[in-house]
Amino acid sequence: MTVVLVLTACGGGGSSSSASFCDDYAELQGLSGTDQATLQRAADLFRKVAAASPSEAKADFTVVAVAAGKVADGEALSVDNDAVSAAAGRADVVAQKECAGK
Prior knowledge:
- The protein is mainly α and 102 residues long.
- The chain has 4 helices and no strands.
- The chain has helices at residues 16-30, 36-52, 58-72, 81-99.
- Helix 1 (16-30) packs antiparallel against helix 2 (36-52), helix 2 runs antiparallel to helix 3 (58-72) and helix 3 (58-72) crosses helix 4 (81-99).
- The longest helix has 19 residues, at 81-99.
- Mean pLDDT is 82; it is low at 6-16.
C-alpha cells in the first residue's frame, strides 16, 4: 500500500507566524521519498504545520499529521485514505489563501 500526501506549496513571508507556517508548508513540498527518515521528517513537519495553521484548518492539518505519523511508524494500513485526502484538500485551500503572495 502506498500513501501519498500531496499539498500545494506556498512561499514564505508575511507575519512571523504566517511566515513560519508557509515556510514549513513549502518545505513539505520539497520532500520526496519513502525512506524512514523522509517519512519521519514529513510527519514532524505536518505536526508543526498543524500547530501553526489558521484555526479553520487546524483540525484538517491534524488529521493529515496523524496519518503521516502512522505511515512513518509503518502503520499505513490503519490510515483512512479517503478521510485524509479530503482533509488535505480542505487544508490546502486554506494554506493557499494564507500563503498567497508571500
